Amino acid sequence: MPDEDIFRPLKIELDPGEVKFSAPAQKHALKRHPNDVPLIVPHLSQILSAPTYLGDDHRNPGKIEIVGRISGVAGAALVALTVKKDETDGYYHVCSSYFITQSELDKKRDKGILKIVKPRTRT
Question: Are 79 and 44 contacting, i.e. CB atoms less than 8 angstroms apart?
Answer without folding.
Answer: yes
